[in-house]
Amino acid sequence: MRTDGALLYLLRILVLAGAYYGAAKLGLTLAFANRSVTAVWPPTGIALAAVVLWGYRVWPGVALGALFANGWTGVPIETVLGITLGNTLEALAGAYVLHRVKFDSALRRVRDVLALVVAAAIVSTVVSATIGVASLGVGGELSWDEVGSTFRVWWLGDMGGDLVVAPFVLLFVGHLREAPRDRWLEAVVLLALLAAVALILFGEDKPLAYVAFPFLIWAGLRLGPHGASAASLLVAGVAVAYTANRHGAFAEGTRDDTLLLAQTFSGVAAVTALLLAAVVAERRRAEAASAQARSQEALEINDNIVQRLKPSPTTRSRPVAPSTRRTHSRPRCADRRPGDDRRPPRPAAARRRGPTGRPAPPLPGRAGARRPAV
Length: 374
Description:
The chain is mostly helical. Helices cover 66% and strands 0% of the residues.
C-alpha cells in the first residue's frame, strides 16, 4: 500500500510539472515587453487547482515546472529561483486561503465562486507578482521605473489564469462524475455554436465580443458549473488567439495592453457564467430539500393518524366484571324444543294460589269446583 501511494504521489508531481511547464511555455510565447512577463499565464490556474485537489504536498510539481519554464528565458539564476519561489508560494497561499474559508471545489455555491475570485484571483496572485517583479529588479532585468506597469501585467495575467483555467481543472479533474451526462448532446451543440460565434466576433474589428454572453448564460443555466467553465475557457482561448494576432475588438494599443483587455473580458465572462451556474445549483438544492421536508412531514402526519386509530393496549384485553345483579332463570321444560317461545307450564299448586299467596277459589265449571245447591 505504501508503494502504491508513493507511486501515485510521484505520478502526480510529474503530471503537474509537465502540465505547468507546457502551459508556461505557451504563456511565454505571448511575452512582449519582457521575456519573463506575460499577460496570459495559464499555469497559475493549473497550480492552484492541483494544490486544492491533491494537497500541499504536491508543491514540488509546481516548483519543477516553474523552474524549467523560467530557466530557458535567459535571465540570471537568482532571478529564476526568485520567480520559481513566487509561483510556488502563490499556489500554496491561494489553496491555504481557500481551505480557510471552507471552499468547495465543485463550485456549486455562490460563496465558492466569490472565494475563488477574491481569495485566489485577487489576493494570492499578489504574492507571485511581488516576488517576481522584485526578482527581475534584483537581477537587473527590469528598470525601477517599469515596476508599476510590469506588476500590473504580471498580476492581471495570473488573475486570468485563476478565473478561467482553475475552474475548468477543478471541475473536470476533481468532479468529472458530477457533470450532467444526460445533456451531453446539448453541450456539444452549445459549444459548437459558441465556437462559431466567437470566431466570427473576434475576427471582426468591431466591438461585438459581448454577443457571446447569451451563450455563456445558456451554459451556466443549463449545463451547470462544468458547462460554464468549458464555455468560458473556449471564449478565452479564441479571444486571446485573435487579440495576440492584432485582430478583434481589443487589438488597440500595445501588445500587453490588448492582451490584458482580452483577459479582462474573459475573466468577467467566466465569473458571470460561474455565478449563474452556482445560483441555479443552490436553487435546485433548496427545492430538493423543501420537497424532502414536505415528504417527511406527510409521513409523520400519517404515522400520527395511524397511532390514534389503533386501540389502546390497556383496553384491548380488559376482562368484563361479573354483574352483581341477581337474575332469576326460568325453569326450562325438558321437552321444550329449540325455538319454542311458549312458557313452561306452571305447577298446579302455583296456579291455584292468588297474588297474595293464598289458594285461589276454584273457577266455575271445572272439575272439583263446588256447585250451588238447586
